Amino acid sequence: MKHLPPRHEAVIKGQKLAYRLAHGDGPTLVLINGAGGPMEGWFRLFPDITQAGTVFAYDRPGVGGSSPPVSPQTGVQVVETLRDLLKAAGLAPPYLLVAHSFGGLHANLFARQHPEEVAGLVLIEPTTPEDVTTLKPLQSGAQRWVNRLLNRLSPSNPDGEVAHELETVRQLAAAAPFPDVPLAVIVGGKAPKDWQARPEAQTLRRQHLEALSRLSPQGSLILAARSGHFPQISEPAAVLEAIATLAARLATNRSGEQRPA
Fold first, then answer.
1. Of 84-88, 173-177, 202-206, which gets the smallest average pLDDT?
2. Could you give all domains of the chain from N- to C-terminal order, each with its CATH number?
3. How many angstroms separate the CA atoms of 29 and 87, rounded?
């Protein structure tokens, strides 16, 4: 992890948040972790990712170097805290949002609520609203046993984002339509074992991801063939390529907008 950029801290509405920032030439890339994942989980993308632009990564409340949440972490709360933190870090929109797993819900909501602040999205094995509402009843016995064990060993915070996932899904349903922006959805090609996820759940999950990629007319589905749920670790080159492609596309679009008539 020696290539990770320096760590900083900021206090946003009484909440201490840790973040890392590396300046580059290009759009501001905002890395949004999965649930419980610290920002160091992006380490395999560094230092190459800085070639695509300025890179910002942070720990949401209760994760890594950030203090526990001081209020219920619904999607709306997460998005507004992130926007305040980006402002405190001196980073102006529009942003290229790069989100993994549960962070995909937050990126999805960010884009719907503040489309003028989002230039594009790269969603890596993202959670979809339909995953939250339909997949849990299809969990295998092994999944349920593991979840019960984890909850005993590390009880979830009642203010945490997972505890409020259904409210986040409701907020997404009430938000504006997804904007017409570049969108890349990266899907791991290695299916989990049947004991890890039932076949019918795997089929539904793939359908949800395909539908997510179609939310924007500029959307695409990218297969990371050698990866499971963490392509940013198992296939960083594929993730970097998707980010670089969108960043270059955004740079071209900006040049066209600035060219005199």
1. 202-206
2. 7-254 (3.40.50.1820)
3. 14
